[in-house]
Design a protein that fits this description.
With 502 residues, the protein is α/β, with parallel strands linked by helices. It contains 21 helices and 11 strands.
C-alpha cells in the first residue's frame, strides 16, 4: 500500500523477465518492505504462463509461499545473524539449486545490523551471485549500509503510507472483522501511526479489544493524543500573560497523572498547527473541526515569531531530562521562558522601552592614554563607591562552567542557573535576575543559595550574599559590556540590544 512507484517498477521487470539479482528496500518501519519482498519471491517463482498474471496465487509455488512452506524462500534476521560466519554459511548453501522453484530468494531483514566483516563477506556474493539466487536486503537505516553494498543493489525507497490510504485499508479491515468504528477515530489512528500501516493495524487491534465502538473520544483517550483542554488553557494563559493560571493548569494535569514530556509534545503539536495555519497551510493541520476552530483563533492572537519561540521552548521540555525528581520543572521553565523571554537573536545597540536609542558600545573618554594614565571607560565610574574585587563580568564568564560543574543530584539548580538572565555585583552582593516570579521562587531557597555561594567561593575565593530579583531584561548582558555600567542598567530596565556600532 502506498508504494505504487515500487510496485510498478517490479511488475514491469517481471513482465519483461528482467528481474535483478539484488534489491535494497529502504524505508520507515511498517511500510511493506518485507511484504513486498515476499511478493517478489512469489512472482519470480510463479509458473503461470502469462507473465502479466504473476503471482497468480493458484500454482503450487504461489500456494507454498502463502502457506509458509516454500523452501526456496529464506528469510534471515540480520540482527541475530550478523557475523562473518553467518554470511559464510549462507555463501556455502547458496550454490545449491532451488528445490521447489526457479529461484532461491534470500530476504535479509534489518541488514544494517551486519558487522563490517559480514558486509565484506557478502560483497563477493553480490558481485557474482549464482543465476538462481536473488537477494532482497531490507533496512530502516540506509545510511548505515556501506556504499560498496549500495552500488551492487537496485535501490527502492519506501514512503510513509498516506493517511487516506491507511484509513481506506482500516475500513476494509473493520468491515471484514465486524468492528464498529467512527471515521474520525480511524483518521486519528492513521495519523498516530505516522505513515506505518503495520502500526495502524496494531493500534486498531488495541482499540478493538475494548469491546466498545471505537469513537474519536475513545481513540484519543487510549492513545493519549487528544488536544486536551490543558493544552488550550496553557495557550490561553500565555495569550493573556497569566503565569499563575498557566502553572495551575500544568500542575492540575500532572497531578491527574499526565506525563510531563507527553504534555509538552501535545503543546508542540498544537503550536505546529498554529504555524501551518499562519503560513497558509491550514489544510495540512490534522485536527478535528472544533480544535481547528480554536487554532484559527489562537493563530490570529500570536505572531509567527511568538509561535516559533514557543515551539522551541516546549520542544526542549519534551526532550529535557533535567527535571529529575521535579518532573514539572522543564514545563515550568518553558512556560516562564515564553511568557518573559524575548527573541535573544537581537544583539547590538539598545533602544530603551520608550524607543530612545542609546549607544551600546562602551566609549573611552577623550583624554589621551599615557603610560602613567590607564585608559578609563566612561561606564567604569557608574558606581565608584562600590569597588569590589569580584566583578560581574568575571562571574558571567564563569557562570555556565559553574552550572555544568554541579552533580546530577543538583540538576534542578543547574537548570535554574541556566535561566538567569542578568548578573550584577554590588559590593559583596551578587544579584541574579530571572524572568519571572516563578523562577525566582524556585531558585531563592536556602540550600540553593548556599550552593551558589559555595560555587562563587570555590571559583573566586570571595564570600558573597545572593539576591534574586525579577528582571524585564530583553536579553542577557553580553560579556564585553560592563555589568555595572549604563548599558547593563538599560538592559536590566527593559532595554533591548538591536545594533552595535564600532
Amino acid at each position: 500500500m502506498g508504494q505504487s512507484h515500487i510496485v510498478t517498477t517490479l511488475t514491469n521487470a517481471i513482465k519483461a523477465d528482467r528481474v535483478g539479482h539484488a534489491y535494497l528496500f529502504a524505508g520507515p518501519r511498517g511500510t511493506g518492505k518485507t511484504t513486498l519482498a515476499r511478493l517478489l519471491a512469489k512472482a519470480v517463482n510463479c509458473t503461470n504462463p502469462d507473465p502479466t498474471k504473476r503471482p497468480c496465487n493458484e500454482c503450487e509455488p504461489c500456494k507454498a509461499v502463502n502457506e509458509n512452506r516454500f523452501l526456496d524462500l529464506i528469510e534471515i534476521d540480520a540482527a541475530s545473524n550478523n557475523g562473518v560466519d553467518d554470511v559464510r554459511d549462507l555463501r556455502d548453501k547458496i550454490n545449491f539449486s532451488p528445490s521447489q522453484g526457479k529461484y532461491k530468494v534470500y530476504i535479509v531483514d534489518e541488514v544494517h545490523m551486519m558487522s563490517g566483516g559480514a558486509f565484506n563477506a557478502l560483497l563477493k556474493t553480490l558481485e557474482e551471485p549464482p543465476p538462481h539466487a536473488i537477494f532482497v536486503l531490507a533496512t530502516t537505516e540506509i545510511h548505515k549500509i556501506p556504499a560498496t553494498v549500495l552500488s551492487r543493489c537496485q535501490r527502492h525507497e519506501f514512503r510513509r503510507v498516506p493517511v487516506d490510504e491507511i484509513v481506506t485499508n482500516l475500513k476494509n479491515i473493520i468491515k471484514v472483522e465486524n468492528i464498529q468504528a467512527d471515521d474520525d477515530a480511524l483518521i486519528q489512528i492513521a495519523r498516530q501511526s505516522a505513515g506505518g500501516m503495520r502500526d495502524a493495524i496494531s493500534l486498531l487491534d488495541q482499540l478493538s479489544s475494548t469491546g466498545d465502538k471505537i469513537t474519536l473520544a475513545l481513540a484519543q483517550s487510549v492513545l493519549g493524543t487528544a488536544t486536551s483542554q490543558t493544552v488550550l488553557d496553557t495557550l490561553t494563559s500565555i495569550m493573556d500573560h497569566d503565569p499563575a493560571h498557566g502553572l495551575e493548569t500544568i500542575h492540575k494535569a500532572l497531578d491527574a497523572g499526565a506525563d510531563p514530556r507527553s504534555l509538552a509534545r501535545q503543546i508542540v503539536e498544537y503550536l505546529r498547527g498554529l504555524m501551518l495555519i499562519q503560513m497558509g497551510n491550514a489544510n495540512q493541520v490534522e485536527a478535528t473541526a472544533d480544535v481547528k476552530k480554536q487554532m484559527q483563533a489562537h493563530a490570529k492572537s500570536f505572531s509567527t515569531s511568538d509561535v516559533l519561540r514557543m515551539m522551541k521552548a516546549f520542544n526542549n521540555a519534551a526532550v529535557d531530562l533535567r527535571g529529575g525528581w521535579q518532573p514539572s520543572l522543564s514545563l515550568e521553565l518553558a512556560l516562564a521562558e515564553v511568557l518573559d523571554a524575548p527573541n535573544e537573536s537581537q544583539t547590538g545597540a539598545i533602544s530603551s522601552p520608550q524607543g530612545t536609542p542609546r549607544q551600546t558600545k562602551p566609549q573611552a573618554v577623550s583624554t589621551p592614554r599615557t603610560e602613567t594614565q590607564p585608559q578609563v571607560e566612561s561606564e567604569a565610574v557608574s558606581h565608584p563607591q562600590e569597588k569590589s574585587a569580584l566583578s560581574a563580568g568575571d562571574v558571567l564568564k564563569a557562570w555556565k562552567q559553574m552550572s555544568a560543574s554541579l552533580p546530577k543530584a543538583q540538576a534542578n539548580l543547574s537548570a535554574l542557573m541556566n535561566s538567569v538572565k542578568m548578573i550584577d555585583v554590588k559590593g559583596k552582593m551578587l544579584i541574579l535576575g530571572l524572568a519571572s516570579d516563578v523562577l525566582v521562587s524556585k531558585i531563592d531557597k536556602p540550600d540553593q543559595i548556599e550552593a551558589i555561594q559555595r560555587l562563587i567561593k570555590d571559583e573566586f575565593g570571595a564570600d558573597v550574599s545572593v539576591r534574586c530579583v525579577v528582571t524585564n531584561a530583553k536579553g542577557k548582558i553580553p560579556a564585553n559590556v560592563a555589568q555595572d555600567g549604563m548599558v547593563a542598567t538599560a538592559i536590566q530596565h527593559g532595554g533591548e540590544i538591536v545594533d552595535t556600532q564600532d
